[in-house]
Specification:
Blueprint: E1 4-8, E2 11-15, E3 17-23, H1 39-52, E4 66-72, H2 79-93, E5 107-111, E6 122-126, H3 130-133
Helix pairs in contact: 1-2
Length: 135
């Protein structure tokens, strides 16, 4: 079928669901070479793919290969979590009978100057933007 073929040290394998994540330099106002996916694209794509995989129907009930493409065109927050939200909407729009809708949210932790991670020294922030991500 149309499953993604994966080469590994143990031989070959296939995946019926995969998320293709592209983060072009222009989405953050930079210039640069585009081509094979870099470390960031592979990592963020895997993060979004792992969030969507549990909601997919079994292969017996939905015997099709599924590919979600996430092309990031602008970034001021968590683009991988945007891929989770957009990927879920795309699956529903395509008629894939998902088990439940999912969404992603960017999380962060700010540490004070007391040294170490503790309830007195840490603040959890949610739905962070790009400027907060740099703190």
């Amino acid at each position: 079928g149309m499953k993604q073929k994966i080469d590994s040290i143990d031989g070959g394998d296939t995946k019926r669901f995969y998320l293709q994540y592209s983060f072009l330099p222009s989405c953050v106002g930079e210039t640069g070479r585009t081509g094979a996916p870099g470390r960031r694209e592979v990592g963020h794509g895997n993060l979004a793919e792992r969030a969507l995989a549990p909601i997919l129907p079994s292969e017996e009930s939905f015997p099709y290969s599924i590919r979600v493409e996430s092309l990031i065109t602008e970034s001021h927050g968590s683009s991988s979590m945007a891929s989770v939200c957009g990927g879920c909407l795309a699956l529903m729009d395509a008629g894939v009978p998902i088990k439940a809708p999912v969404a992603g949210i960017a999380m962060g932790m700010l540490l004070g100057d007391k040294g170490g991670v503790s309830d007195d020294n840490a603040v959890i922030v949610s739905d962070i933007l790009g400027t907060e991500d740099a703190l």
